[in-house]
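Justification of computing resources. Each target in the renewal requires a structure prediction run like the one illustrated here; the chain below, 90 residues long, is used simply to show the kind of job we budget for.
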Amino acid sequence: WKPHDTDRGTLRAVVNNEVMINAGRQTSTVFNQNRAYAGLNYALSEQFEVEAGYMKVIQQRSSGNAFWNRDVLRLTLIHAWRTRRAEQSR
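Resulting structure tokens:
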């Protein structure tokens, strides 16, 4: 998916989940954090989009046996830069 491939007025749902782990011999635990995200994306033009969503973040604290449990509201502005090379390949 590329922002500049979206037609103006397009509304889409965005769903994502990321699980992050610790690696290496010095690590006492494997789990680091989980980020679950759901949002709506709207194309203002071929180059500009706006996205609003909700993210649930569960992150292990440095103590190792406690977790941060956060609710995050996000507002994102997306701009697709066009270069001469990209223009020539279209």
